[in-house]
Design goal:
There is one protein chain. The strands form three sheets. The chain has a five-stranded antiparallel sheet with strand order 1-2-3-5-4. The chain has a five-stranded mixed sheet with strand order 7-9-10-12-11. The chain has three domains: 7-145, Histidine kinase-like ATPase, C-terminal domain (Heat Shock Protein 90, 2-Layer Sandwich), CATH 3.30.565.10; 146-293; 299-445, Heat Shock Protein 90 (2-Layer Sandwich). With 448 residues, the chain is of the alpha+beta class. It has helices spanning 14-30, 35-56, 85-91, 129-140, 147-250, 260-290, 303-314, 339-355, 413-423, and strands at residues 7-11, 59-66, 72-79, 101-106, 112-119, 299-302, 323-327, 334-337, 360-369, 372-379, 427-433, 437-445. The protein has nine helices and twelve strands. The longest helix is centred in the middle third of the chain and has 104 residues, at 147-250. The mean pLDDT is 81.
Length: 448
């Protein structure tokens, strides 16, 4: 809602144009507008007044303040002529550049209204009701000056504007000189940087060529290693299996009796051969995974049945009464994955946890997290220092000082489990604190 007008006046003769100009400047000054804005507002009012006076010889002028939103000085100039809005808008097009807003409307068929507005600066004095009354009182006592007085003021403003333009021109000349000097420096620096960049690019190209060569050599070495592991593992598996079979025949009840020392030595041979067969099988599996020869078979997996099978097959390994082996009911009943590979990952993690847990518990659980499924194997074993969390996924690496409570470790289970996790589109990570146990989390997408 617009506040009570500051002042009203009527345009009838040319002398009134000077009065409107003077009042516009006076009101703008009282409301806190800067000197240049005062001049712009006064010039806009005198130009509109001149046009309206030429059109009708009569116009009403109202000065007001718009308090809502952004405070603004608003001047309304109305005259009786109708149907002139479009033509006046064209005539006053340049005037609109002196104010923030200018509108020309037909006032309901009774006349034409020109509305001008200029926003008050943020640092303007606060317009309290008392201050508004004070401004009205001052405007009411305003004594219009003569055209000569107004011309003198305009000349002073013009001189000030010219001085300001001259100062700006001098400053611009100085800035241009500095810019030219800066440009010369920039061009010199640019040329130097261009030469250095060209030299660097040549070095980078040579480095990339060397890296490509090294990468090719590394791929060839990796493929050769995988082939070697696969071939050696395959060739070793048959004789190792034969050794285990022969050891079983020697201790069979149908064979000739052995002395106690012979029985002990044969049992050592069988145990060593079994450990070697486990290592050979691990190497063969790892070689297949590295060579990309494992292709998952996607199908719906019944997690409740899988967990039950893991519980049954691994419970004989958890023979220590001090360790609770817990396979929780799955929080996710069905899951699309490769059942064999998933079971192999979980079996490796659980077997590893049972080996290195002396007291406490080994626990398997699963839950949906967002669009993934998280399989968690948590134990209360020896734990792993933070700086070794990634190293435990390297082939043949075992945490210094750790000792399996039961069985022997080959250092291949965790690397193989992580590679299988990648084949299934997921990831395997470990969180562990020495003395508090370890938590291995397998995260896989629910849909593949």
């Amino acid at each position: 809602m617009t506040a009570e007008p500051l002042m009203r006046m009527r345009l009838r003769v040319e002398q009134d144009i000077f009065v409107v100009r003077q009042l516009g400047r006076e009101v703008a000054r009282e409301l806190g507008l800067e000197s240049q804005d005062q001049t712009r507002m006064a010039t806009a009012l005198s130009e509109v007044g001149r046009v309206l006076l030429a059109e009708s010889g009569d116009a009403d002028v109202t000065f007001a303040v718009e308090p809502n939103g952004v405070p603004s000085l608003r001047v309304t100039m109305a005259y009786p002529g109708t149907g002139q809005a479009n033509r006046l808008t064209e005539q006053l097009r340049q005037v609109g550049r002196l104010v923030d807003t200018m509108e020309v409307d037909d006032d309901g068929g009774t006349g034409t209204v020109v509305r001008l507005a200029r926003r008050l600066p943020s640092g303007a004095p606060r317009l309290t009701p008392d201050r508004m009354d004070e401004i009205r009182s001052g405007l009411a006592q305003h004594v219009p000056g003569t055209p000569l007085d107004e011309l003198a003021i305009q000349n002073q403003q013009l001189i000030g504007a010219l001085d300001e333009v001259r100062a700006q021109r001098d400053e611009l000349a100085r800035l241009n000189a500095e810019l030219e000097e800066t440009n010369r420096g920039v061009m010199a620096l640019y040329n130097q940087l261009s030469e250095e960049l060209e030299e660097t690019n040549r070095g980078v190209v040579a480095l990339y060529a060397e890296l490509d060569e090294k990468s090719a050599q590394l791929r060839a070495a990796s493929e050769a290693k995988s082939r070697f592991l696969a071939n050696v593992s395959h060739e070793l598996r048959a004789p190792v299996t034969a050794i285990i079979g022969l050891g079983r025949l020697l201790t069979d009840s149908g064979s000739d009796d052995l002395t106690s020392e012979q029985s002990r030595q044969v049992e050592l041979i069988r145990t060593s051969a079994s450990d070697l067969l486990t290592l050979v099988n691990g190497l063969l599996d790892l070689a297949k995974a590295e060579a990309g020869r494992i292709e998952p078979t996607w199908a719906e997996v019944d997690l409740k049945a899988m967990f039950g099978q893991l519980r049954g097959t691994l419970r004989p390994l958890a023979t220590r009464p001090e360790v609770d082996f817990v396979v929780e009911e799955p929080g996710l009943l069905t899951f699309r994955s490769d059942e064999v590979l998933l079971a192999q990952i979980l079996r490796n993690l659980l077997t590893n946890a049972i080996k290195f847990t002396e007291t406490g518990s080994v626990r398997l659980s699963v839950r949906p997290v967002g669009g993934d499924a998280e399989f968690v194997v948590a134990d209360t074993g020896f734990g792993i220092p933070p700086e070794l969390h990634e190293r435990v996924f390297e082939e043949f690496y075992q945490v210094p000082g750790s000792r399996p409570v039961s069985g022997k470790g080959t250092g291949l289970g965790l690397p193989y489990a992580r590679r299988l996790a990648g084949i299934l589109g997921g990831a395997l990570r470990v969180d562990s604190t020495p003395g508090e146990g370890s938590t291995f989390t397998l995260r896989l997408p629910i849909t593949s």
